[in-house]
Known about the structure:
By secondary structure, this protein is mainly alpha-helical. The protein has one domain. The protein is about 60% helix and about 0% strand. It has 15 helices and 4 strands. The protein has helices spanning about 1-15, 25-50, 80-90, 100-120, 130-150, 165-170, 225-245, 255-270, 275-280, 290-310, 320-335, 345, 350-370, 385-390, 395-415, and strands spanning about 160, 185-190, 195-200, 205-210. Helix 2 packs antiparallel against helix 3, helix 2 packs parallel to helix 10 and helix 8 (about 255-270) packs parallel to helix 11. The longest helix is centred in the first third of the chain and has 29 residues, at about 25-50.
Amino acid sequence: MLYYLFAYLHKEFDMPGAGVFQYISFRAALAIITSLIIAMVFGKRIIGYLLRMQVGETVRDLGLDGQKEKQGTPTMGGLIMLGAILIPTLLFARLMNVYVIIMIVTTVWLGIIGFIDDYIKVFKKDKAGLAGRFKIMGQVGLGLIIGSTLYFNPYVVVKEKASKNEIRLHTESSNVIENIRQNENILVSPLAVKSTKTTIPFLKNHEFDYASLLKWTGPNYRNWSWLIFIPVVILIITAVSNGANITDGIDGLATGTSAIIGTTLGILAYVSGNTVFANYLNIMYIPNAGELVVFIAAFVGACVGFLWYNAYPAQVFMGDTGSLALGGIIATFAIAIRKELLIPVLCGIFVVENLSVVIQVSYFKYTKKKYGEGRRIFRMSPLHHHYQKLGYHESKIVSRFWIIGIMLAIFTVVTLKLR
């Protein structure tokens, strides 16, 4: 909202300093500062309110050190994060931007699903919470909306790479040539086109087109590429959202990991939405995607601000209200900037936590069927509980997972040039 206000003041009254709101970097800085203030200042009041409402966590006895002390710790703290993300976004982002709109929808949608789950657990005293099938239905519904919007919306376009000669032939009449690199025969095309291409790591061409999977259907195969693209979007949003939910098992783990991932996604969004950097890195230029930097700045600020109270020993837990939204935001953001195939690397912590549960459950069922007695690979799943069983303190586990997350984040950024 403030973006439009100051744009108006700058245009109509030439107000000194109002033009600075045109810069994404300035608005991103304001967003992260505002989200930090909201999370840290108002977070304390919300925690106090949750305590008065007796919105405490019911902790199952898993035989872990320090577990009993967590009993009664306020949950549903994800409300703090949602407010700290949405308010700065509404204040500083361009709200007519399609990418900003889908991020707001994702945040609210999954926040509501998580809130319903927490509400059932806390106020209805049903430990099972919202039935799993309803969670999946909600995630699939969101994936369908996001996938359809990204595929069909006319403002979701890319500017692909092309040779100088090709662009010159096209632009002789208009004299429009953008960002020609001096030493390479590569530039950003002035033509914005609909595309189902995405960035793929480690390969020289660096791009993969989902539509190519349907070439066998005939010359009009691109008309049916939504049959591949939308299910992929649904799968990624569901998997990453659940991965973040599973990772949220010890103090500060999901919050800190999400902050690291969010910072990396912000870098990727900035270079993808900037013609100079996109051209230098030889990646797709995505018009208007730079505006996502404002949103992700608010996201990172919310995570860090919430970590003030969620770090060991936690004064509040985010609950499903926060964890489902965190994963969904990360997944949707990565898809929007065409970097979803980097998720297995960037979100390696979420992936490993998810796999540890799948492996543990599958192996237990297999051995029970074969030997009549279920066996386990890990002492407990998800993986962070396995290390707790081995005697590691949870603060050490979290710190080491963060270090691994930082290494994965750096490696993710490096893949833009490592091919």
